[in-house]
């Protein structure tokens, strides 16, 4: 995904976590085009927004502990 914006990165990270497809922190850093240290910062951002997220060592992926996800898009009021 070229030229991430702040919200693009959050959306992409959320989709990877929902799919349990982040890989290790090192693999996730490559997917997001950030450092491993920044991966932890972004994961903490999701946690700060209320996400019950954890790293599954056996599956080598981040995952939500309950079903759910974020919606960062604009919703028009009617």
Describe the structure.
- The protein is mostly helical and 78 residues long.
- The protein has one domain (6-64): Winged helix-like DNA-binding domain superfamily/Winged helix DNA-binding domain (Arc Repressor Mutant, subunit A, Orthogonal Bundle), CATH 1.10.10.
- Helix content is 45%, strand content 10%.
- It has helices spanning 6-19, 25-32, 36-48; strands at 53-56, 61-64.
- It has a two-stranded antiparallel ribbon.
- Strand 1 and strand 2 form a beta hairpin.
- The protein is globular and about 45 Å long.
- The termini are far apart.
- The mean pLDDT is 90.
Index terms:
single chain; 78 residues; mainly alpha; Arc Repressor Mutant, subunit A; two-stranded antiparallel sheet; 3 helices; globular; WH-like_DNA-bd_sf
Total strands = 2
> On the 0-100 scale, what is the average pLDDT?
90
Top-tier CATH class: Mainly Alpha
Name the helicity range.
Answer: 40-55%
Distance between the termini: 32 Å
Order of helix and strand elements from N to C terminus: HHHEE
Low-confidence stretches: none
Number of domains: 1
| Classification by helices and strands | mainly alpha
Strand order of the largest sheet: 1-2
How large is the share of residues in beta strands?
A: 5-15%
Number of helices: 3
- In CATH, what is the homologous superfamily? Winged helix-like DNA-binding domain superfamily/Winged helix DNA-binding domain
Radius of gyration: 13 Å
Overall morphology: globular
Largest sheet: 2 strands, antiparallel
CATH architecture tag: Orthogonal Bundle
CATH third-tier fold name: Arc Repressor Mutant, subunit A
Domain Helix-turn-helix type: 19-56
Organism: Anseongella ginsenosidimutans
InterPro entries: HTH_11 (IPR013196), WH-like_DNA-bd_sf (IPR036388), WH_DNA-bd_sf (IPR036390)
Protein name: HTH domain-containing protein
């Amino acid at each position: 995904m070229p030229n991430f914006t702040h919200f693009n990165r959050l959306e992409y990270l959320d989709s990877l976590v929902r799919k349990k497809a982040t890989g290790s922190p090192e693999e996730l850093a490559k997917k997001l085009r950030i450092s491993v240290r920044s991966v932890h910062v972004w994961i903490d951002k999701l946690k700060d927004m209320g996400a019950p997220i954890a790293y599954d060592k056996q599956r080598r992926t981040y995952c939500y502990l309950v079903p759910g996800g974020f919606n960062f898009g604009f919703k028009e009021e009617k």
